[in-house]
Amino acid sequence: MTGKRIWEMQPFTVCRILGLAFNEMELKKLFRELKISHNGDLLQASAMHQQLIDVCTNKTQASKNMDAVLNKRFEPYKGKIKNQDIVKLIEHGKICTDIPLPAFIWFAVQDQREDNNIEEQIIAAIHIKEHEALRFYDELSRTLHNNPECVLSELNNAISVNERLEKNLNRLKKRLETVRSEMDTMKEGKLEITHALQEMQESNEQLKAETKKVENETAPEQIKYLKKERDLLIREVKQLTEKLGVEDTKSAVSENEKDVEEMPIEESKECPYMRGVKVMYIGGVEPLAPHYRGLVESFGCNFCYHPGHCPQKSEIRNIVGRTDMVFCPVDINSHNACRHIKKACKQKGIPCFFLRSSGVTTFKKSLEDHLQFTAGSLVSQES
C-alpha cells in the first residue's frame, strides 16, 4: 500500500515541506518545469510559494509531477527514518539524525497513512522550532548588521583554513620524524667516529711502542741522523704551509739551471758497492731531470725519475716498489705527497730521503752522504 500523496496532505504540512526544500531559485525552476502559469507576472518568492501550495492541494497533473519531484529528491533518505525518531520529534521537538527536516516530515507523514493526527503532532513540534529559528535569525541579523547569510561563508572559510592547518600539521609531523631519523643517524655516525678515534689512539700507542723498540735496537748514530732528518722535514713542511703558493715552475727552472752553471758539479768517482742500485727521484723540476740522471749515473747507479703526479695512492706504492732508494724534494712536492711517499717506503722497507730543495747541488750532497753511509754499512757486513 502506497503512502500519502501530496494532495492528500494538510496544506500546512505541504507548506513546511516546500518551504524547507526549495529556495527562490529552485522555485523559479519548478515553475518552468511544471509549466505553472503566473499570467506573465514576475512573482515574488512568497507568491510563488503560495501558488505552488495551491497547485498541490488538488489532484492534478501538476500535483502529480510535484509529488514525483519530492519522491525523487528525498529517495536517498528512504528507509533511514525510524519510529523512535518520529517519537522524539513529537515528544521533544528534536531529532538526532543527518536526515534533512523536509525529508523527515515527508516520509513520516507518508508512513503514518492511517493516523490522521500525525501531521498535526509533527507540525506542532516543528512550529516551536520555527520560532527558535526565527529568534536565532533575528539575533544574527542584529549582530551581523542585517547580513546573517555571511555566517555560512565564514564557517566554510574556517573549515577550509582548518583543513589547510591540518595538512601543514601532518607535513610538520612527517618532517619531525625525518629530523629524528637524521638525528639518530648522526648519533650512530658519532659513535662510529668515536670507535675509529679509539682505534687510532690504540694504533698510535702501538706505533710509539714499536718506535721505541726500534730506537733501542738501532745504532745511536743512525738514530741521531734520522731525528735530524725528521726535524729538518718538519721545519720545511711548516715553511711550505705558511707560504701562500709555490714559485712558478719556470722561475724554479731558471734558478736551478743558474746554479748548475755557476756551481759546476765535480766529477764523482764510481762506487763499486753501489753499481746497479736503483735510485728513484720523485718530483723536482722536470727540465733538470738530465742533470739528476748524470749525477746518479756518475756513482754507477741506475737512475729512475717520476714527476710526482700520482692521482692514486696505489701508483706511489708501485713506483716505490721498483727501486732501492728514494729521494724526494719538499719544495716542489706537496705535504700530502711527501706523506704518502714516506708511508709507501716504510711499507716496502726502502730508504727514503727528503731534500730541502730540488736543486742539483742539494741532490749531489745528499746523495754523496747517503751513498757513503750505505757503502760503509755494506763494507762492515762483508768484513
Automatic annotation (TrEMBL):
Pfam families: DUF2325. It comes from the Archaea. Residues 155-243 form a coiled coil. Keywords: Coiled coil. This is DUF2325 domain-containing protein. The lineage of its organism: Archaea, Methanobacteriati, Methanobacteriota, Stenosarchaea group, Methanomicrobia.
